[in-house]
Amino acid sequence: MIANSYPQLGWLAPQAEPVAQNVPETIALVAPSFDQQQLNAMSLDLDAVRQSIDRIATSMSAIQEQMSRGADRIANSIVANQEQIARSVDQLTAGQEQMTREITKLQAVEQYVLYKNADPPPRPAAAPVPKPVLRASQAPTAPTPAKTP
């Protein structure tokens, strides 16, 4: 009444309720009404869903742990195999180097044997010594037969 009588004191008057306070009534009018039995059933269903989600989360955690252990085993196996391959490559390299040395030795021996067993190079044919040409004065005479008495 005072606020109505003296407009300058209007701020003392009670304020009208905000529209938001009327919303529950509006929702109640729009939303279907559920009885307590339906609400209890929905609550039980919601609990069952939560328990299922918890079981799924637990299962997923266990699966992730198993996958992690499996990945660790695979990684360790890969590392071990890589080390074994590296050792095998080193052994193969050493074997190839040894084989190269042996082949080089065999080639040297082969060259030596071929050199030693080779026919000596043919000697140049000696020029035939020319027979001296005899001149008539130098020619031997045939022996004359002895005269017999």
Brief descriptors of the model:
63% helix, 149 residues, mainly alpha
Rg, rounded, reads 63 Å
Fraction in beta strands: under 5%
- Mean residue pLDDT: 79
The low-confidence runs, each spanning 5 or more residues with pLDDT under 50, are none
- Name the overall outline: rod-shaped
Provide a descriptive summary of the structure in words.
This protein is mainly α. It is about 65% helix and about 0% strand. The chain has three helices and no strands. It has helices at about 1-5, 25-30, 35-115. The longest helix has about 80 residues, at about 35-115. It is rod-shaped and about 210 Å long. The termini are far apart.
Topology overview:
Elements: H1 2-5, H2 23-30, H3 36-117
Describe what is shown at a glance.
With 149 residues, the chain is mainly alpha-helical. Helices cover 63% and strands 0% of the residues.
